[in-house]
Amino acid sequence: MADKKLTFRFDDVSANSDIKLHNDITDYLFDKFPNCEVIWAVSPCVHSSQNENGRVFPKIWNAYSDPTIHYTLDRIGTVYIRPKITVATHGLVHCDHRLMKQSAQELSIVLSANLVGAKVFVPPFNKWNIQTEYICQTHGIELIKFEDGWKSMEHEKYDSDHTLWYLHARDNWSMDTIKKWFECA
Prior knowledge:
By secondary structure, the protein is of the alpha/beta class. The protein has one domain (7-183): TIM Barrel (Alpha-Beta Barrel), CATH 3.20.20. The protein contains 5 helices and 9 strands, in the order βαββαββαβαβββα. A 5-stranded parallel β-sheet has the order 5-2-1-9-8. The chain has a two-stranded antiparallel ribbon with strand order 3-4. It is globular and about 45 Å long.
């Protein structure tokens, strides 16, 4: 395994996230795989408590949606990310960027990249389009595409030969969960 570079990506990181859990899992990954890369995909705008499921799914978001129903401005901001972690933007708001006009998509990607200090964009829901690709290329932002071989730690069994993994460290994750996931190989 020494010649393989493992990458673990945490999606949906925001001021609403359990940052202690994120850090604990990150520490565990660095201890288990000292040369791995850990990426946190951060959205500066956080979900509103009016939004039951915590994420804005494409079926409820469109060009006419009222963002104040889905997002709250009183907790807008970024989270502290330790130097060893790679910071990525997950967009200003967590929504399917394909549903935005190109100018709105560009604002979301570029502004959030600047706010969190990122040169990487991880599209929410792993959805992107040609405009996303153009925006990232134009602004020197790396676009991480699901199609490049990412597997979900929530839905796939651990495979020691696979190198690209992503997770959403939410209520269903704990330190025991992550340890058991590796043991189920």
